[in-house]
Amino acid sequence: MTAPTPSPGTHDLAAGGAHSLVQSVDWVAVAPPVIVALAALAVLVADLFLTERRKSLLGPLSAAALALSLLALLPLTGGRRATFCTTAGPRACSYVVDTFTLSIQLLVLGAALVTALLSMTAVAQERLPAGEFWFLLLSSACGAALLPAARDLATLVVALEVASLPAFALVGLRRGSRLSSEAALKFFLSSVTATAVMLLGVSFVYAATGSMHLETVAERLPHTDSRLGTLAAAGVALTLIGFAFKTAAAPFHFWVPDTYVGAPVPVAAYLSVVGKAAGFSGLILVAVRGFPPYAHAWGPALAVLAALTMTVGNLGALRQRTDRAHGAVRLLAWSSVGQAGYLLVPLAAAGHQDHQGHRDAAVGATVAYALMYAVVNLGAFAVVAALRHRGDDSAQDGRLDQYRGLARSHPFAAAALAFFLLCLAGLPPGIIGLFAKVTVFSAAVDAGLGWLAVVMAVNVVIALVYYLTWLALLFRPAVQPTAGRARWLPLPLTVTIALTGVLALALSGAPQLVLGFAATTLF
Protein backbone atom coordinates (compact mmCIF):
# COMPACT_ATOMS: atom_id res chain seq x y z
CA MET A 1 0.00 0.00 0.00
CA THR A 2 1.56 3.30 -1.09
CA ALA A 3 1.64 6.20 1.29
CA PRO A 4 -0.50 9.18 0.33
CA THR A 5 1.13 12.42 -0.72
CA PRO A 6 1.49 14.79 2.24
CA SER A 7 -0.63 17.92 2.04
CA PRO A 8 0.37 21.33 3.42
CA GLY A 9 -1.77 20.61 6.46
CA THR A 10 0.03 17.43 7.55
CA HIS A 11 3.61 16.43 8.20
CA ASP A 12 5.43 13.11 8.09
CA LEU A 13 7.11 12.36 11.39
CA ALA A 14 7.73 8.65 11.16
CA ALA A 15 10.21 6.83 8.99
CA GLY A 16 9.20 4.72 6.03
CA GLY A 17 6.35 6.97 4.86
CA ALA A 18 4.03 6.39 7.81
CA HIS A 19 1.96 9.44 8.64
CA SER A 20 1.47 10.83 12.10
CA LEU A 21 -1.99 11.40 13.48
CA VAL A 22 -0.73 14.77 14.75
CA GLN A 23 -1.91 17.51 12.40
CA SER A 24 -0.33 20.84 11.69
CA VAL A 25 -2.31 24.00 11.02
CA ASP A 26 -1.70 26.18 7.98
CA TRP A 27 -2.33 29.52 9.66
CA VAL A 28 -2.04 31.43 6.40
CA ALA A 29 -4.88 29.37 4.93
CA VAL A 30 -7.18 29.84 7.92
CA ALA A 31 -6.22 33.49 8.52
CA PRO A 32 -9.35 35.21 7.05
CA PRO A 33 -11.95 33.59 9.34
CA VAL A 34 -9.53 33.55 12.29
CA ILE A 35 -8.99 37.32 12.05
CA VAL A 36 -12.74 37.91 12.10
CA ALA A 37 -13.18 35.53 15.05
CA LEU A 38 -10.44 37.25 17.06
CA ALA A 39 -11.98 40.63 16.28
CA ALA A 40 -15.36 39.39 17.53
CA LEU A 41 -13.76 38.36 20.84
CA ALA A 42 -11.92 41.69 21.06
CA VAL A 43 -15.19 43.59 20.54
CA LEU A 44 -16.93 41.50 23.20
CA VAL A 45 -14.19 42.19 25.76
CA ALA A 46 -13.86 45.88 24.83
CA ASP A 47 -17.60 46.35 25.28
CA LEU A 48 -17.18 45.53 28.98
CA PHE A 49 -14.75 48.39 29.62
CA LEU A 50 -15.80 51.17 27.22
CA THR A 51 -18.19 53.92 28.23
CA GLU A 52 -21.38 54.39 26.22
CA ARG A 53 -19.86 57.30 24.32
CA ARG A 54 -16.72 55.39 23.38
CA LYS A 55 -18.64 52.32 22.23
CA SER A 56 -19.03 54.11 18.90
CA LEU A 57 -15.40 53.06 18.30
CA LEU A 58 -16.49 49.41 18.00
CA GLY A 59 -17.95 50.02 14.54
CA PRO A 60 -14.71 51.30 12.96
CA LEU A 61 -12.80 48.54 14.79
CA SER A 62 -15.07 45.88 13.27
CA ALA A 63 -14.81 47.42 9.81
CA ALA A 64 -11.00 47.51 10.10
CA ALA A 65 -10.93 43.83 11.10
CA LEU A 66 -13.06 42.88 8.09
CA ALA A 67 -10.81 44.91 5.81
CA LEU A 68 -7.77 43.13 7.28
CA SER A 69 -9.39 39.74 6.66
CA LEU A 70 -9.91 40.73 3.03
CA LEU A 71 -6.21 41.56 2.75
CA ALA A 72 -5.44 38.13 4.23
CA LEU A 73 -6.92 36.58 1.07
CA LEU A 74 -4.06 37.94 -1.05
CA PRO A 75 -1.39 35.39 0.03
CA LEU A 76 -3.82 32.58 -0.80
CA THR A 77 -4.14 33.36 -4.50
CA GLY A 78 -1.04 31.37 -5.43
CA GLY A 79 -2.68 27.94 -5.56
CA ARG A 80 -4.59 25.29 -3.67
CA ARG A 81 -3.88 24.88 0.04
CA ALA A 82 -5.27 22.35 2.49
CA THR A 83 -5.10 21.84 6.23
CA PHE A 84 -6.71 19.73 8.96
CA CYS A 85 -6.08 16.64 6.83
CA THR A 86 -6.31 13.01 7.91
CA THR A 87 -3.94 10.19 7.02
CA ALA A 88 -6.62 8.49 4.91
CA GLY A 89 -5.44 10.14 1.71
CA PRO A 90 -4.36 13.43 0.15
CA ARG A 91 -7.94 14.55 -0.42
CA ALA A 92 -9.27 13.80 3.08
CA CYS A 93 -8.94 17.37 4.31
CA SER A 94 -11.46 19.36 6.31
CA TYR A 95 -10.29 22.82 5.18
CA VAL A 96 -9.32 23.56 1.57
CA VAL A 97 -8.55 26.89 -0.05
CA ASP A 98 -9.10 26.94 -3.81
CA THR A 99 -10.59 29.36 -6.33
CA PHE A 100 -14.13 28.60 -5.16
CA THR A 101 -13.20 29.24 -1.52
CA LEU A 102 -11.46 32.53 -2.30
CA SER A 103 -14.35 33.75 -4.47
CA ILE A 104 -16.99 33.11 -1.80
CA GLN A 105 -14.80 34.46 1.01
CA LEU A 106 -14.23 37.63 -1.03
CA LEU A 107 -18.00 37.95 -1.45
CA VAL A 108 -18.80 37.22 2.20
CA LEU A 109 -16.13 39.38 3.81
CA GLY A 110 -16.66 42.21 1.34
CA ALA A 111 -20.41 42.15 1.97
CA ALA A 112 -19.83 42.06 5.73
CA LEU A 113 -17.57 45.12 5.40
CA VAL A 114 -20.28 46.98 3.45
CA THR A 115 -22.81 45.92 6.09
CA ALA A 116 -20.52 47.33 8.79
CA LEU A 117 -20.44 50.68 6.99
CA LEU A 118 -24.22 50.58 6.65
CA SER A 119 -24.66 49.72 10.31
CA MET A 120 -22.70 52.57 11.87
CA THR A 121 -25.59 54.99 11.38
CA ALA A 122 -28.29 52.45 12.23
CA VAL A 123 -26.66 51.37 15.50
CA ALA A 124 -26.53 54.97 16.69
CA GLN A 125 -29.94 56.17 15.51
CA GLU A 126 -31.91 53.03 16.42
CA ARG A 127 -30.05 52.76 19.75
CA LEU A 128 -29.03 49.17 19.19
CA PRO A 129 -26.65 47.70 21.80
CA ALA A 130 -23.32 48.35 20.09
CA GLY A 131 -21.24 45.63 21.72
CA GLU A 132 -23.78 42.88 21.05
CA PHE A 133 -24.42 44.06 17.49
CA TRP A 134 -20.80 44.11 16.36
CA PHE A 135 -19.96 40.86 18.15
CA LEU A 136 -22.90 39.07 16.49
CA LEU A 137 -22.12 40.51 13.06
CA LEU A 138 -18.47 39.46 13.21
CA SER A 139 -19.34 36.01 14.58
CA SER A 140 -21.80 35.39 11.75
CA ALA A 141 -19.31 36.63 9.15
CA CYS A 142 -16.69 34.26 10.59
CA GLY A 143 -18.97 31.24 10.08
CA ALA A 144 -19.90 32.36 6.58
CA ALA A 145 -16.21 32.76 5.66
CA LEU A 146 -15.38 29.32 7.06
CA LEU A 147 -18.16 27.54 5.18
CA PRO A 148 -16.82 27.60 1.57
CA ALA A 149 -13.52 26.11 2.75
CA ALA A 150 -15.21 23.22 4.59
CA ARG A 151 -14.76 19.86 2.91
CA ASP A 152 -16.45 17.54 5.37
CA LEU A 153 -20.09 17.39 6.42
CA ALA A 154 -19.42 18.06 10.11
CA THR A 155 -17.45 21.24 9.42
CA LEU A 156 -20.11 22.34 6.93
CA VAL A 157 -22.90 22.04 9.48
CA VAL A 158 -20.89 23.74 12.24
CA ALA A 159 -19.88 26.62 9.95
CA LEU A 160 -23.45 27.07 8.75
CA GLU A 161 -24.75 27.23 12.32
CA VAL A 162 -22.02 29.67 13.35
CA ALA A 163 -23.22 31.88 10.49
CA SER A 164 -26.92 31.41 11.32
CA LEU A 165 -27.19 31.53 15.12
CA PRO A 166 -25.87 35.10 15.55
CA ALA A 167 -28.16 36.19 12.72
CA PHE A 168 -31.24 35.25 14.78
CA ALA A 169 -30.15 37.66 17.49
CA LEU A 170 -29.29 40.39 14.96
CA VAL A 171 -32.80 40.23 13.54
CA GLY A 172 -34.39 40.57 16.99
CA LEU A 173 -31.97 43.15 18.37
CA ARG A 174 -34.45 46.04 18.22
CA ARG A 175 -35.78 45.72 21.74
CA GLY A 176 -39.43 46.57 22.21
CA SER A 177 -40.26 46.13 18.52
CA ARG A 178 -43.04 43.62 17.85
CA LEU A 179 -42.03 43.27 14.20
CA SER A 180 -38.45 42.54 15.18
CA SER A 181 -39.44 39.88 17.71
CA GLU A 182 -41.80 38.15 15.28
CA ALA A 183 -39.17 38.23 12.54
CA ALA A 184 -36.54 36.68 14.81
CA LEU A 185 -38.96 33.95 15.89
CA LYS A 186 -39.91 33.02 12.32
CA PHE A 187 -36.28 33.03 11.25
CA PHE A 188 -35.30 30.91 14.24
CA LEU A 189 -38.04 28.30 13.78
CA SER A 190 -37.40 27.88 10.05
CA SER A 191 -33.65 27.64 10.52
CA VAL A 192 -33.92 25.16 13.38
CA THR A 193 -36.20 22.99 11.25
CA ALA A 194 -33.69 23.14 8.40
CA THR A 195 -30.84 22.22 10.72
CA ALA A 196 -32.73 19.25 12.16
CA VAL A 197 -33.52 17.92 8.69
CA MET A 198 -29.93 18.47 7.59
CA LEU A 199 -28.43 16.71 10.61
CA LEU A 200 -30.70 13.73 10.06
CA GLY A 201 -29.56 13.55 6.44
CA VAL A 202 -25.88 13.87 7.39
CA SER A 203 -26.23 11.05 9.91
CA PHE A 204 -27.80 8.81 7.25
CA VAL A 205 -24.99 9.59 4.78
CA TYR A 206 -22.36 8.85 7.41
CA ALA A 207 -24.06 5.57 8.34
CA ALA A 208 -24.12 4.49 4.69
CA THR A 209 -20.59 5.56 3.70
CA GLY A 210 -18.62 5.61 6.96
CA SER A 211 -17.07 8.99 6.17
CA MET A 212 -17.76 12.71 6.60
CA HIS A 213 -15.28 13.98 4.00
CA LEU A 214 -17.00 15.00 0.79
CA GLU A 215 -14.48 13.44 -1.57
CA THR A 216 -14.62 10.13 0.26
CA VAL A 217 -18.41 10.23 0.38
CA ALA A 218 -18.50 10.79 -3.39
CA GLU A 219 -16.27 7.76 -3.93
CA ARG A 220 -18.21 5.44 -1.61
CA LEU A 221 -21.81 6.32 -2.47
CA PRO A 222 -21.84 4.26 -5.73
CA HIS A 223 -20.50 1.24 -3.83
CA THR A 224 -22.83 1.39 -0.86
CA ASP A 225 -24.11 -1.94 0.41
CA SER A 226 -27.45 -2.71 -1.25
CA ARG A 227 -29.04 -2.98 2.18
CA LEU A 228 -28.04 0.63 2.87
CA GLY A 229 -29.05 2.04 -0.52
CA THR A 230 -32.35 3.46 0.71
CA LEU A 231 -30.65 4.97 3.76
CA ALA A 232 -28.04 6.67 1.58
CA ALA A 233 -30.66 8.04 -0.82
CA ALA A 234 -32.73 9.39 2.08
CA GLY A 235 -29.61 10.99 3.58
CA VAL A 236 -28.76 12.74 0.32
CA ALA A 237 -32.34 14.02 -0.05
CA LEU A 238 -32.64 15.29 3.52
CA THR A 239 -29.25 17.02 3.42
CA LEU A 240 -30.14 18.85 0.22
CA ILE A 241 -33.55 19.83 1.61
CA GLY A 242 -31.84 21.30 4.67
CA PHE A 243 -29.62 23.48 2.52
CA ALA A 244 -32.59 24.48 0.35
CA PHE A 245 -34.11 26.01 3.50
CA LYS A 246 -30.94 28.06 4.00
CA THR A 247 -31.01 29.40 0.42
CA ALA A 248 -34.63 30.61 0.82
CA ALA A 249 -35.68 28.50 -2.15
CA ALA A 250 -39.43 28.03 -2.57
CA PRO A 251 -41.37 26.51 -0.88
CA PHE A 252 -38.94 27.15 2.00
CA HIS A 253 -38.98 30.92 1.52
CA PHE A 254 -41.92 31.84 3.75
CA TRP A 255 -39.73 33.44 6.44
CA VAL A 256 -37.96 35.89 4.13
CA PRO A 257 -40.37 38.88 3.73
CA ASP A 258 -41.33 39.22 7.41
CA THR A 259 -37.76 38.65 8.57
CA TYR A 260 -36.36 41.35 6.30
CA VAL A 261 -39.08 43.82 7.35
CA GLY A 262 -38.61 43.18 11.07
CA ALA A 263 -34.82 43.32 11.01
CA PRO A 264 -32.79 46.55 10.93
CA VAL A 265 -32.13 47.47 7.29
CA PRO A 266 -28.37 46.65 7.44
CA VAL A 267 -29.20 43.21 8.87
CA ALA A 268 -31.72 42.61 6.09
CA ALA A 269 -29.03 43.56 3.57
CA TYR A 270 -26.60 41.18 5.28
CA LEU A 271 -29.06 38.28 5.18
CA SER A 272 -29.91 38.91 1.53
CA VAL A 273 -26.27 38.55 0.48
CA VAL A 274 -24.14 36.81 3.13
CA GLY A 275 -26.90 34.51 4.36
CA LYS A 276 -27.69 33.52 0.80
CA ALA A 277 -24.01 33.03 -0.05
CA ALA A 278 -23.57 30.73 2.94
CA GLY A 279 -26.57 28.62 1.96
CA PHE A 280 -25.53 28.33 -1.65
CA SER A 281 -21.93 27.51 -0.72
CA GLY A 282 -23.11 24.58 1.33
CA LEU A 283 -25.54 23.44 -1.36
CA ILE A 284 -22.82 23.56 -4.02
CA LEU A 285 -20.35 21.62 -1.91
CA VAL A 286 -22.69 18.82 -0.87
CA ALA A 287 -24.32 18.45 -4.30
CA VAL A 288 -21.40 18.91 -6.70
CA ARG A 289 -18.55 17.63 -4.52
CA GLY A 290 -20.24 15.18 -2.17
CA PHE A 291 -23.21 13.71 -4.03
CA PRO A 292 -22.30 13.56 -7.76
CA PRO A 293 -23.41 9.88 -7.96
CA TYR A 294 -26.95 11.14 -7.29
CA ALA A 295 -26.80 13.94 -9.87
CA HIS A 296 -29.50 12.17 -11.87
CA ALA A 297 -31.83 12.84 -8.92
CA TRP A 298 -30.79 16.22 -7.54
CA GLY A 299 -30.27 17.80 -10.98
CA PRO A 300 -33.98 17.60 -12.04
CA ALA A 301 -35.06 18.43 -8.47
CA LEU A 302 -32.99 21.63 -8.45
CA ALA A 303 -34.33 22.55 -11.90
CA VAL A 304 -37.91 22.37 -10.62
CA LEU A 305 -36.88 24.23 -7.45
CA ALA A 306 -35.23 26.97 -9.54
CA ALA A 307 -38.33 27.45 -11.69
CA LEU A 308 -40.62 27.52 -8.65
CA THR A 309 -38.39 29.88 -6.67
CA MET A 310 -37.93 32.51 -9.36
CA THR A 311 -41.65 32.44 -10.20
CA VAL A 312 -42.83 32.74 -6.59
CA GLY A 313 -40.31 35.48 -5.85
CA ASN A 314 -41.11 37.61 -8.87
CA LEU A 315 -44.88 37.24 -8.51
CA GLY A 316 -44.57 38.15 -4.83
CA ALA A 317 -42.62 41.30 -5.71
CA LEU A 318 -45.11 42.15 -8.45
CA ARG A 319 -47.94 42.20 -5.87
CA GLN A 320 -46.31 44.86 -3.67
CA ARG A 321 -48.28 48.12 -3.58
CA THR A 322 -46.53 51.47 -3.57
CA ASP A 323 -48.58 52.69 -0.58
CA ARG A 324 -47.84 49.69 1.68
CA ALA A 325 -45.70 50.19 4.76
CA HIS A 326 -42.18 48.79 4.43
CA GLY A 327 -42.88 48.29 0.73
CA ALA A 328 -39.28 48.93 -0.35
CA VAL A 329 -37.81 46.27 1.95
CA ARG A 330 -40.61 43.82 1.11
CA LEU A 331 -39.97 44.30 -2.59
CA LEU A 332 -36.24 43.66 -2.13
CA ALA A 333 -37.09 40.61 -0.01
CA TRP A 334 -39.27 39.07 -2.72
CA SER A 335 -36.70 40.11 -5.30
CA SER A 336 -34.03 38.20 -3.36
CA VAL A 337 -36.21 35.09 -3.52
CA GLY A 338 -36.49 35.50 -7.29
CA GLN A 339 -32.75 36.03 -7.59
CA ALA A 340 -32.21 32.80 -5.62
CA GLY A 341 -34.08 31.03 -8.40
CA TYR A 342 -31.62 32.38 -10.97
CA LEU A 343 -28.72 31.24 -8.80
CA LEU A 344 -30.14 27.71 -8.72
CA VAL A 345 -30.25 27.42 -12.52
CA PRO A 346 -26.51 26.69 -13.07
CA LEU A 347 -26.58 24.19 -10.20
CA ALA A 348 -29.46 22.39 -11.87
CA ALA A 349 -27.45 22.48 -15.10
CA ALA A 350 -24.49 20.94 -13.26
CA GLY A 351 -26.70 17.99 -12.34
CA HIS A 352 -27.40 17.36 -16.02
CA GLN A 353 -23.70 17.27 -16.97
CA ASP A 354 -22.06 13.86 -17.26
CA HIS A 355 -18.49 14.94 -16.55
CA GLN A 356 -17.33 16.17 -13.13
CA GLY A 357 -15.24 18.89 -14.74
CA HIS A 358 -18.29 20.24 -16.54
CA ARG A 359 -20.23 20.24 -13.28
CA ASP A 360 -17.47 22.17 -11.55
CA ALA A 361 -17.36 24.67 -14.40
CA ALA A 362 -21.14 25.19 -14.19
CA VAL A 363 -20.64 26.31 -10.61
CA GLY A 364 -18.71 29.27 -12.00
CA ALA A 365 -21.89 30.72 -13.48
CA THR A 366 -23.50 30.72 -10.02
CA VAL A 367 -20.41 32.34 -8.49
CA ALA A 368 -20.32 35.03 -11.19
CA TYR A 369 -24.00 35.83 -10.73
CA ALA A 370 -23.65 35.87 -6.94
CA LEU A 371 -20.80 38.40 -7.10
CA MET A 372 -22.86 40.70 -9.33
CA TYR A 373 -25.95 40.32 -7.16
CA ALA A 374 -24.02 41.04 -3.95
CA VAL A 375 -22.73 44.40 -5.17
CA VAL A 376 -25.97 45.79 -6.59
CA ASN A 377 -28.28 44.41 -3.91
CA LEU A 378 -26.15 45.87 -1.12
CA GLY A 379 -26.20 49.16 -3.00
CA ALA A 380 -30.01 49.11 -3.21
CA PHE A 381 -30.30 48.42 0.51
CA ALA A 382 -27.84 51.25 1.20
CA VAL A 383 -30.15 53.71 -0.55
CA VAL A 384 -33.13 52.35 1.41
CA ALA A 385 -31.19 52.86 4.64
CA ALA A 386 -30.23 56.38 3.54
CA LEU A 387 -33.88 57.28 2.90
CA ARG A 388 -34.85 56.10 6.38
CA HIS A 389 -32.22 58.33 7.95
CA ARG A 390 -32.46 61.42 5.77
CA GLY A 391 -34.44 63.28 8.41
CA ASP A 392 -38.03 62.92 7.15
CA ASP A 393 -40.34 61.52 9.81
CA SER A 394 -42.69 60.34 7.08
CA ALA A 395 -39.95 58.19 5.58
CA GLN A 396 -39.75 55.85 8.54
CA ASP A 397 -42.41 53.39 7.33
CA GLY A 398 -40.54 52.78 4.07
CA ARG A 399 -43.38 53.03 1.55
CA LEU A 400 -42.38 53.01 -2.11
CA ASP A 401 -44.40 56.20 -2.62
CA GLN A 402 -41.86 58.00 -0.48
CA TYR A 403 -39.28 57.54 -3.23
CA ARG A 404 -41.19 60.02 -5.40
CA GLY A 405 -39.03 63.03 -6.06
CA LEU A 406 -35.85 61.42 -4.78
CA ALA A 407 -34.09 62.52 -7.96
CA ARG A 408 -34.68 66.12 -6.88
CA SER A 409 -34.02 65.87 -3.15
CA HIS A 410 -31.06 63.47 -3.42
CA PRO A 411 -29.90 63.16 -7.04
CA PHE A 412 -26.81 61.16 -6.02
CA ALA A 413 -28.82 58.50 -4.15
CA ALA A 414 -31.53 58.44 -6.86
CA ALA A 415 -28.99 57.93 -9.64
CA ALA A 416 -27.30 55.14 -7.70
CA LEU A 417 -30.61 53.37 -6.94
CA ALA A 418 -31.70 53.69 -10.58
CA PHE A 419 -28.46 52.05 -11.71
CA PHE A 420 -28.76 49.25 -9.14
CA LEU A 421 -32.33 48.52 -10.24
CA LEU A 422 -31.27 48.43 -13.89
CA CYS A 423 -28.51 45.94 -12.98
CA LEU A 424 -30.97 43.73 -11.11
CA ALA A 425 -33.36 43.92 -14.05
CA GLY A 426 -30.60 43.18 -16.56
CA LEU A 427 -31.08 46.35 -18.63
CA PRO A 428 -28.41 48.69 -20.05
CA PRO A 429 -26.48 50.55 -18.75
CA GLY A 430 -26.48 47.84 -16.08
CA ILE A 431 -24.36 45.66 -18.36
CA ILE A 432 -23.13 43.38 -15.60
CA GLY A 433 -26.69 42.36 -14.74
CA LEU A 434 -27.49 41.67 -18.37
CA PHE A 435 -24.35 39.59 -18.99
CA ALA A 436 -24.79 37.67 -15.73
CA LYS A 437 -28.32 36.68 -16.72
CA VAL A 438 -27.10 35.65 -20.18
CA THR A 439 -24.43 33.48 -18.54
CA VAL A 440 -27.00 31.73 -16.36
CA PHE A 441 -29.35 31.37 -19.34
CA SER A 442 -26.54 29.82 -21.42
CA ALA A 443 -25.76 27.32 -18.65
CA ALA A 444 -29.36 26.06 -18.80
CA VAL A 445 -29.34 25.82 -22.60
CA ASP A 446 -25.98 24.04 -22.72
CA ALA A 447 -27.28 21.43 -20.25
CA GLY A 448 -30.33 20.75 -22.39
CA LEU A 449 -32.72 22.50 -20.00
CA GLY A 450 -34.57 24.48 -22.64
CA TRP A 451 -37.80 24.57 -20.63
CA LEU A 452 -35.98 26.10 -17.66
CA ALA A 453 -34.42 28.73 -19.93
CA VAL A 454 -37.91 29.66 -21.14
CA VAL A 455 -39.19 29.92 -17.55
CA MET A 456 -36.25 32.13 -16.69
CA ALA A 457 -36.88 34.40 -19.71
CA VAL A 458 -40.53 34.84 -18.68
CA ASN A 459 -39.51 35.67 -15.13
CA VAL A 460 -36.97 38.23 -16.30
CA VAL A 461 -39.79 40.00 -18.13
CA ILE A 462 -42.03 39.86 -15.03
CA ALA A 463 -39.23 41.34 -12.93
CA LEU A 464 -38.90 44.27 -15.32
CA VAL A 465 -42.35 45.49 -14.27
CA TYR A 466 -41.61 46.04 -10.58
CA TYR A 467 -38.02 47.16 -11.04
CA LEU A 468 -39.04 49.80 -13.59
CA THR A 469 -42.06 50.83 -11.51
CA TRP A 470 -39.78 51.64 -8.60
CA LEU A 471 -37.30 53.37 -10.92
CA ALA A 472 -40.04 55.56 -12.41
CA LEU A 473 -41.11 56.73 -8.95
CA LEU A 474 -37.69 58.32 -8.44
CA PHE A 475 -38.36 60.89 -11.15
CA ARG A 476 -42.03 61.68 -10.42
CA PRO A 477 -43.04 64.76 -8.43
CA ALA A 478 -42.81 64.31 -4.68
CA VAL A 479 -46.02 63.62 -2.77
CA GLN A 480 -45.15 66.31 -0.20
CA PRO A 481 -43.66 69.59 -1.41
CA THR A 482 -41.29 69.69 1.58
CA ALA A 483 -39.82 66.36 0.50
CA GLY A 484 -38.03 68.11 -2.33
CA ARG A 485 -35.59 69.91 -0.05
CA ALA A 486 -32.10 68.44 -0.23
CA ARG A 487 -30.56 67.08 2.98
CA TRP A 488 -27.12 65.70 3.67
CA LEU A 489 -26.89 61.95 4.07
CA PRO A 490 -24.81 60.47 6.92
CA LEU A 491 -21.19 59.94 5.88
CA PRO A 492 -21.11 56.11 6.33
CA LEU A 493 -24.21 55.75 4.12
CA THR A 494 -22.77 58.10 1.51
CA VAL A 495 -19.53 56.09 1.45
CA THR A 496 -21.46 52.83 1.14
CA ILE A 497 -23.58 54.07 -1.77
CA ALA A 498 -20.50 55.46 -3.51
CA LEU A 499 -18.49 52.28 -2.96
CA THR A 500 -21.17 49.92 -4.28
CA GLY A 501 -21.95 52.32 -7.14
CA VAL A 502 -18.31 52.46 -8.23
CA LEU A 503 -18.03 48.67 -8.06
CA ALA A 504 -21.20 48.22 -10.10
CA LEU A 505 -19.94 50.69 -12.71
CA ALA A 506 -16.55 48.98 -12.84
CA LEU A 507 -18.15 45.56 -13.32
CA SER A 508 -20.42 46.93 -16.05
CA GLY A 509 -17.42 48.44 -17.78
CA ALA A 510 -15.32 45.27 -17.39
CA PRO A 511 -17.77 42.38 -16.88
CA GLN A 512 -15.01 39.86 -17.51
CA LEU A 513 -13.80 40.55 -13.96
CA VAL A 514 -16.57 38.28 -12.65
CA LEU A 515 -17.94 36.53 -15.72
CA GLY A 516 -14.59 34.80 -16.22
CA PHE A 517 -15.63 32.45 -13.42
CA ALA A 518 -18.29 31.00 -15.72
CA ALA A 519 -15.58 29.44 -17.88
CA THR A 520 -13.34 28.34 -15.02
CA THR A 521 -13.19 25.10 -13.08
CA LEU A 522 -13.23 26.49 -9.55
CA PHE A 523 -12.40 23.33 -7.59
From TrEMBL:
The chain crosses the membrane at residues 27-50, 57-76, 96-118, 130-147, 153-173, 185-208, 228-255, 267-291, 297-317, 329-349, 361-387, 412-436, 448-475, 487-507. It is an enzyme of class 7 (translocase). GO terms for biological process: ATP synthesis coupled electron transport. Its EC number is 7.1.1.-. The keyword Transmembrane helix applies. One of its GO terms (molecular function) is NADH dehydrogenase (quinone) (non-electrogenic) activity. Signal peptide: none annotated. One of its GO terms (cellular component) is plasma membrane. Belongs to the complex I subunit 2 family. HAMAP family: NDH1_NuoN_1 (MF_00445). This is NADH-quinone oxidoreductase subunit N. It comes from Streptomyces albus.
